[in-house]
Every structure is written in structure tokens, then in C-alpha cells.
């Protein structure tokens, strides 16, 4: 691990509110909706290069951006090196299409 402080933001990012299978449907039901249906949707996100992938993470937006903004430059450089290696997977830089999975729900308001 590059930075032990990364554990808490990572855990919130991957297991925060509404990230588990039944949580969104439960929230809809708790809000009074009926006939609640939930499913997952996979969306492809395209990047032209590693720079295209990395740049938004430096925007101080969201949990990852806020975390990266909080670390010293040497830690940020090491994280970038490791993330680049994961992005390239030994194939060098170039376009990639990554999958993002989201939970979606629908329900009906009571009559």
C-alpha cells in the first residue's frame, strides 16, 4: 500500500451508501414506492489515453479527487505510476474502454 490513509476513501468509494445490491431497492421501498424493480446496468466508458483517464482524477472532485489533492506530491507520483501500470497492463498507452456498473431502480408512487 502506498498510503494507509487511502483505505478509508477506497472503502467509502466501493462500499458506501447504495453500492450493495439491495440498498437502492430498499431506499425506494422505504420512500413509499410500490412495485419496485432493481437491476444492474453496465456502461462502457472510453478513454483515448492514460492522460485522458488520469486528468479528471486531479480535478479535486469526488472522493478520489479529494484524496489525491490531499497527498504529498511524491505519493501522488507513486500512485500515478501504479495506476498507469494497471491501465496499460503491459500493452503501453492507448485507447481503453472500461466498464462501469450501476444499480438502477424504478417504482410506482402509490395511487
Catalogue the unreliable spans: none
Shape: elongated
What is the CA-atom radius of gyration, in angstroms? 18 Å
Helix content: 40-55%
**Intertermini distance:** 53 Å
The tally of beta strands, per DSSP, is 2
- The H/E string reads HHEHHHE
Strand share of the residues? 15-25%
Number of domains: 1
Mean pLDDT: 89
Q: What is the tally of helical segments?
A: 5
Quaternary state of the chains: single chain
Largest pleated sheet: 2 strands, antiparallel
Judged by helices, strands and strand pairing, the structural class is: alpha+beta
Can you characterise this structure?
- The structure is a single chain.
- This protein has 5 helices and 2 strands, in the order H-H-E-H-H-H-E.
- With 111 residues, it is of the alpha+beta class.
- The radius of gyration is 18 Å and the shape is elongated.
- The longest helix has 16 residues.
- It has one domain.
- It starts with 6 loop residues before the first helix and ends with a strand.
Amino acid at each position: 500500500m502506498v498510503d494507509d490513509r487511502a483505505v478509508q476513501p477506497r472503502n467509502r468509494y466501493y462500499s458506501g451508501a447504495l453500492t450493495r445490491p439491495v440498498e437502492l431497492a430498499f431506499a425506494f421501498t422505504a420512500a413509499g414506492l410500490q412495485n419496485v424493480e432493481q437491476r444492474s446496468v453496465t456502461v462502457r466508458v472510453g478513454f483515448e489515453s492514460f492522460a485522458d483517464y488520469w486528468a479528471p482524477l486531479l480535478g479535486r472532485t469526488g472522493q478520489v479527487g479529494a484524496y489525491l489533492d490531499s497527498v504529498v506530491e511524491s505519493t501522488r507520483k507513486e500512485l500515478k505510476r501504479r495506476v498507469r501500470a494497471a491501465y496499460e497492463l503491459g500493452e503501453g498507452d492507448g485507447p481503453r474502454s472500461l466498464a462501469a456498473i450501476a444499480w438502477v431502480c424504478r417504482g410506482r408512487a402509490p395511487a
